[in-house]
Amino acid sequence: MLTASVAMPTFNRREILLQTLASLERQSVEPSRYEVLVCVDGSTDGTI
After folding, report:
1. Number of separate domains in the chain
2. What's the pLDDT at 45?
3. Structural domain contains residue 46
4. Is residue 12 part of a domain?
5. How much is the pLDDT for 48?
6. Is residue 13 classed exposed, middle or buried when 0-12, 13-18 and 19+ CB atoms within 10 A define those classes?
7. Is 19 left (phi over 0), alpha (psi -120 to 50) or beta?
8. pTM of the predicted model, to two decimals?
9. Do residues 43 and 16 lie in contact, with contact meaning Cβ atoms separated by under 8 Å?
10. How far apart are CA 37 and CA 8, in angstroms?
């Protein structure tokens, strides 16, 4: 059962996004219990 949603808007913050996603993976909550939504708006630094 999905219990949480994490929404992350980002623009040209590739490294910070990678660190944040890695931190989410290290949480004790089962990945099936949450979803991650990343909204990227025209970044030019490889953020996808």
Report:
1. 1
2. 95
3. no
4. yes
5. 81
6. middle
7. alpha
8. 0.81
9. no
10. 6
Domain boundaries, position 32: 4-40
Give the tokens for residue 11.
């623009």
Helix (H, G, I), strand (E, B) or coil at 12: coil
Round to whole Å and give the CA distance between 36 and 21.
9
Q: In this structure, is residue 47 part of a structural domain?
A: no
Query: Do 7 and 35 touch, CB atoms closer than 8 A?
Result: no
Place of tokens 């890695």: 22
Q: Is residue 34 part of a domain?
A: yes
Residue type at 11?
F
Encode pLDDT of 1-48 as tens digits: 899 999 999 999 999 999 999 999 999 999 899 999 999 989 999 998
